[in-house]
Amino acid sequence: MSNLHNPTGTLLNDEDIVSFLEKVPSYVKVVLDEAYIEFLEKDPLDSLKIYKEFSNVIILRTLSKAYGLVGVRVGYGIARSSIIDEFKFVIGPFDLNSYAQNLAVRVIKEKSM
Ligand SMILES: *Cc1c(COP(=O)(O)O)cnc(C)c1O
């Protein structure tokens, strides 16, 4: 579920997302794709609260858009360790190189100053 949605720009609120998650069986993983969340003037979402309530939720964010690192493809995710363990087998070929990691740390530090 992409929120803000690309390319329509529609935004689901917390109640919409919770209502959806209540209908999804807990063994089904649900990704909250928040690639454009930094473009909201005020963050109306509390996805961490939703994440704490629903153990099948994975939150994904990227530095490609708001941080201008589209060519570097750096992002981060928040999920239960049991879910992360299921994805560890793909880390080898898709792991970030040291250039991407250092660039990510640098832009995050610059934005937070
Ligand atoms: C850009 C984008 C991403 C992530 O892009 P990466 O460059 O792979 O980090 C994810 N979801 C949506 C909807 C996007 O527009």
Automatic annotation (TrEMBL):
Q: Which Gene3D superfamilies does the record match to this protein?
A: Type I PLP-dependent aspartate aminotransferase-like (Major domain)
The protein's UniProt keywords, in alphabetical order, are: Aminotransferase, Pyridoxal phosphate, Transferase
The segment(s) forming the Aminotransferase class I/classII large domain are 3-110
Annotated InterPro entries:
Aminotrans_II_pyridoxalP_BS, Aminotransferase_I/II_large, PyrdxlP-dep_Trfase, PyrdxlP-dep_Trfase_major
A Pfam entry, by short name: Aminotran_1_2
Q: What cofactor requirement does the entry state?
A: pyridoxal 5'-phosphate
- GO MF annotations, alphabetized: pyridoxal phosphate binding; transaminase activity
Superkingdom in the source lineage: Bacteria
Query: According to its UniProt record, which protein family does this protein belong to?
Result: Belongs to the class-II pyridoxal-phosphate-dependent aminotransferase family.
> Which named protein is this?
Aminotransferase class I/II-fold pyridoxal phosphate-dependent enzyme
